[in-house]
Amino acid sequence: MNKMNKELLILIFFLLIKTTFGQNKEVDIDKLETTEDVESFIHSFDKGYEKFELKSIGEFNSKNKKNNFCKRVSDSLEITKPFYKSDFDNNGLTDIIAIGNYYHFKILVVMNFGKDSLKLNRLTRRIFQNCVFPKIVNDTIIDYYYQTQPNWNSKEKARLAKKS
Question: Domain locations in the chain?
Answer without folding.
Answer: 25-163
